[in-house]
Amino acid sequence: MASIFTKIINGEIPCYKIAEDDRHFAFLDINPVAAGHTLVVPKHEVSYLFDLDDDEYVSLELFAKKVAKAIEQVIPCKRIAEAVIGLEVPHAHIHLIPINSEGDMDFRHKQQLSVEEMKTIAEKISAAVK
Ligand code: AMP
Predict the structure, then answer these.
(1) pTM > 0.90: yes or no
(2) Beta strands 79-83; 94-99: pairing state
(3) Are 26 and 40 in contact (CB under 8 A)?
(4) pLDDT tens, position by position, 4-28
(5) Quick one: which of 111, 86, 124, 93 has its CA closest to 31?
(6) From the CA of 38, how far away is ligand 1's center (Å)?
């Protein structure tokens, strides 16, 4: 069965889309740790990030870098942090999270943003992707 992220990529489930190219897709995490929390996924569905072949892995990181640069421009923060968890969704993905301190990376505390806030953030980040 297709993963929830494959369904998002295929447009079967809605998302707050940030960017895509032929091999990758980026969208806002629906339960963000911080405003601008973005997921970057390969379109090729592989369960575990570190099972991607080298080319896919490097290519995903380069795409994540491009998205991180866009988040930086929109969300005031000291750094864009990157995390790999993968316990919930078995489709390889990278979390990109704007942070000002280590505490901003606490996955036990999710934020509640309105639909309008999520839409606005996604549109701004998307427009900043080069
Ligand atoms: P993990 O697999 O542990 O890295 O966590 C999966 C992440 O995907 C969590 O942060 C969820 O909030 C996020 N997530 C799950 N379903 C969706 C969805 N439909 N749209 C956006 N983000 C999602």
Answers:
(1) yes
(2) antiparallel
(3) yes
(4) 999 999 999 999 999 999 999 999 9
(5) 111
(6) 10
